[in-house]
Amino acid sequence: MTVLSEAMWTSGGEQSWADLYQPLTEMLYEVGFIGFGSIADRGVIYFYDDPALADNLSTLEKIKSFFVHPAYHMALGVKQNYELTDST
Known about the structure:
There is one protein chain. By secondary structure, this protein is α+β, with helices and mostly antiparallel strands. Helix content is 35%, strand content 9%. The protein has one domain (2-76). The relative contact order is 0.16. The model has no long low-confidence stretch (mean pLDDT 83).
């Protein structure tokens, strides 16, 4: 983690977001912890959907949101808001 986040702590502000965060983002994506959203309206994309996606800096710059994979929600205490509808 120290090596992957080193650029974040040592940068003088001259690097882009993708340059700073790509190594850590790529690792979290590859282990399946996070997915990417809003890339050409493809929905949420996880590693098993597109393994090479986090390798490309230009693709990372297009990401609008990150999603924690549902498998980790319980351990992290993530609560979903579900709207209950009356089925009658």
